[in-house]
């Protein structure tokens, strides 16, 4: 069983998945009229690009219609299958972007210490390392924002040791509820009695990890993807009519 859920947008077919990198390659083929020109424009090896197209076609069907050189010079264009695949990918990406923009967990905490831009913040569910406003010193209150698309979920036995990964922030919790979309799910993980941490996963990861309400999971997220700011102070009388 795949024990990690992440939110990189992918369209899977068997053991092969179309990724954002593959989408860029196909779009470049359409724009430049040949795989060779597309690889060159992207700064990629033609051999690697060709091999990747072959792998994708074995899973999804014909994607690039190639014509041999002649008086017209030959070239390549995308098949209808490729166009449909790109459209599906774009819809999935749009859904993901929409949910990711809206879903953010904000933790209130206090700066314990700092090292340049990075600071240690004590929050109700535990200690968090984050990029924190340089005006915030030890003892100052801050609000730490954690975007749902930066959170990775693991089954507890498979959770990486914090010292062995760049995602050193970790909270264990229980799945409180799941909001499923067409291809993306928003998972709410209760990491303490008063705090729910949101994470985005694909429907494939949801199934492979067997994520259900009540499941125990470990959430991990990087310090460099976590931002702390000094909370805005409400001015006295701001609600009064002038």
UniProtKB/TrEMBL annotation:
Membrane topology: Peripheral membrane protein
Pfam families, sorted: HTH_1, TOBE
Principal location class: membrane
Keywords: Coiled coil, Molybdenum, Repeat, Transport
PANTHER family: DNA-BINDING TRANSCRIPTIONAL DUAL REGULATOR MODE (PTHR30432:SF1), TRANSCRIPTIONAL REGULATOR MODE (PTHR30432)
Family: Belongs to the ModE family.
Name the UniProt record assigns to this protein: Putative molybdenum-binding protein
Annotated organism of origin: Haloarcula vallismortis ATCC 29715
Taxon lineage: Archaea, Methanobacteriati, Methanobacteriota, Stenosarchaea group, Halobacteria
């Amino acid at each position: 069983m795949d024990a990690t859920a992440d939110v990189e947008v992918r369209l899977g077919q068997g053991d092969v998945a179309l990724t954002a990198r593959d989408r860029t390659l196909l779009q470049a083929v359409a724009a430049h009229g040949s795989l060779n020109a597309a690889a060159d424009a992207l700064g990629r090896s033609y051999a690697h690009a060709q091999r990747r197209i072959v792998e994708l076609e074995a899973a999804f069907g014909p994607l690039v219609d190639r014509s041999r050189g002649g008086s017209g010079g030959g070239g390549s264009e995308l098949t209808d299958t490729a166009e449909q695949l790109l459209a599906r990918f774009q819809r999935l990406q749009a859904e993901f972007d929409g949910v990711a923009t809206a879903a953010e967990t904000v933790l209130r905490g206090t700066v314990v210490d700092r090292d340049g831009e990075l600071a240690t913040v004590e929050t109700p569910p535990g200690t968090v390392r984050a990029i924190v406003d340089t005006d915030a010193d030890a003892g100052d209150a801050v609000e730490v924002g954690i975007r749902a698309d930066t959170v990775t979920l693991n089954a507890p036995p498979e959770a990486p040791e914090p010292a062995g990964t760049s995602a050193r922030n970790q909270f264990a919790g229980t799945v409180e509820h799941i909001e499923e979309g067409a291809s993306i799910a928003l998972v709410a993980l209760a990491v303490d009695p008063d705090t729910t941490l949101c994470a985005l996963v694909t429907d494939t990861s949801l199934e492979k990890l067997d994520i259900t309400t009540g499941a125990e999971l470990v959430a991990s997220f990087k310090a460099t993807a976590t931002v702390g700011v000094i909370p805005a102070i409400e001015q006295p009388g701001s609600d009064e009519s002038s």
